[in-house]
Write a structure and sequence with these properties.
Largest sheet: 7 strands, parallel
Helix content: 25-40%
Strand order of the largest sheet: 8-7-6-9-10-11-12
Distance between the termini: 18 Å
Shape: elongated
Order of helices and strands: EHEHEHEHEEHEEHEHEHEHEH
Number of strands: 12
Low-confidence stretches: none
Radius of gyration: 21 Å
Number of helices: 10
Strand content: 15-25%
Length: about 300
C-alpha cells in the first residue's frame, strides 16, 4: 500500500501524531506550508491524499493532482474545498466531525453584575445544525432541564429529544440560539437582519461554527439597538479580526474567543490522528469514516 500523503498547510507546531499513525505503513508523509491553490498544484502533484487546513482546494488543484484519492480536512467545515469538483474527479472529501464535541462550550464582585439570571429549566435552547457537535450540545442542554429546539435535524435520531421546528419558530422561541451548521453558499449570513429581528431581545446568540453564518454588521446593529441581549462568538467573518470584528470584540455585550472553543489537548490529538487514519483507510482501498461527498467510481 505505497502512498504519498501531503499536508498542504497547518498552523500546528508538530505533525508527530500523524506520523505515529502512518508509521509501519509504506506511506511517505510530507508537510508543506502552501498559501495559495497554485502552490498546492505546483508542490503536491504526486499526492495520493491531501490533509488540508486553510488553503483552498479548487477544481484546478485537483486537475493538477491526477493521483489524489482523498482530501481530508483538519476540522469539520469543508467550505474551502470544492466538494462537487472532487466528486466528479473520483476524489473523496472527508472531515473530522467529532474531534471537539466535548469542548465546544470582565466581572465584578456583586450580584447586580450577573443579573438577570434565569432558572435553566425555564429556558429554551435552539440548536441550528444538529450534527455531532450540535447534538452533543443539545444533550447537555437537555440534561440541565432545558427545552431543546432544533433546525436541520436528521430524520432518524436517538436521545436527547430535540424538537424539530422551522428556523423561524426556533428564532422566535429560543432564549439562546447556538450555531453548529456548515458554511455553504446557502447558509452564508443565515443569521442576518431578518433572523435577528425574530429573536427575543433577551436572547443570546452563540456561534462556534463559522463566522460567515452571521452577518456581522447586522449583529452589531442589533446589539447597539438593544434588540439582542448579547453574543458569544468563537468565530468571526474575518480572521484575524478586521475592523468590524474588532468592533464586535470591544462591544460590552459580546464575548469573543480566538477560534479556540474546539481546543483541548485530547481534541487536538484526536484531530491530528484521525486525519492520518482517514488517509490509511482510503490508501487501503476503503472509504473514509466521515465522507462529505460520494465521488464517481475511480477507473
Amino acid at each position: 500500500m505505497p502512498g504519498v500523503v501531503v499536508i498542504t498547510d497547518c498552523d500546528h507546531d508538530t505533525v508527530d501524531p500523524e506520523r505515529r499513525v502512518l508509521d509501519g505503513h509504506d506511506v511517505e508523509l510530507r508537510r508543506l506550508q502552501c498559501r495559495t491553490p497554485g502552490e498546492v498544484a505546483d508542490q503536491a502533484g504526486d499526492a495520493d491524499v491531501l490533509i488540508n487546513q486553510y488553503v483552498p482546494i479548487t477544481a484546478a488543484v485537483l486537475d493538477a493532482l491526477p493521483g489524489c484519492r482523498l482530501v481530508v480536512r483538519y476540522g469539520v467545515g469543508v467550505d474551502n474545498v470544492d466538494v462537487e469538483a472532487a466528486a466528479g474527479r473520483c476524489v473523496w472529501v472527508a472531515n473530522v466531525p467529532d474531534y471537539g464535541r466535548d469542548e465546544v462550550r470582565d466581572g465584578a464582585w456583586e450580584l447586580e453584575a450577573a443579573r438577570p439570571l434565569r432558572r435553566l429549566a425555564t429556558l429554551t435552547w435552539g440548536v441550528i445544525g444538529c450534527g455531532a457537535i450540535g447534538t452533543a450540545v443539545a444533550g447537555r442542554a437537555a440534561g440541565l432541564g432545558m427545552r431543546v429546539l432544533g433546525h436541520d435535524v436528521p430524520q432518524v435520531r436517538s436521545e436527547p429529544p430535540i424538537e424539530r421546528v422551522p428556523l423561524e419558530e426556533l428564532l422566535e422561541a429560543a432564549d439562546l440560539v447556538s450555531l453548529h451548521a456548515v458554511l455553504t453558499p446557502d447558509s452564508h449570513h443565515l443569521v442576518g437582519a431578518s433572523a435577528l429581528a425574530r429573536m427575543r431581545p433577551t436572547a443570546w446568540l452563540v456561534n462556534t461554527a463559522r463566522g460567515g453564518l452571521v452577518d456581522s454588521a447586522a449583529l452589531l446593529a442589533a446589539l447597539d439597538a438593544g434588540a439582542l441581549a448579547g453574543a458569544a462568538l468563537d468565530v468571526l467573518e474575518g480572521e484575524p479580526p478586521d475592523e468590524l470584528g474588532r468592533r464586535l470584540a470591544r462591544h460590552p455585550r459580546v464575548v469573543v474567543t480566538p477560534h479556540a472553543a474546539w481546543y483541548s489537548e485530547e481534541a487536538f490529538h484526536t484531530l491530528k490522528t484521525e486525519v492520518a487514519r482517514e488517509a490509511l483507510r482510503v490508501l487501503e482501498g476503503g472509504r473514509p469514516r466521515s465522507p462529505v461527498n460520494q465521488p464517481a467510481a475511480r477507473p
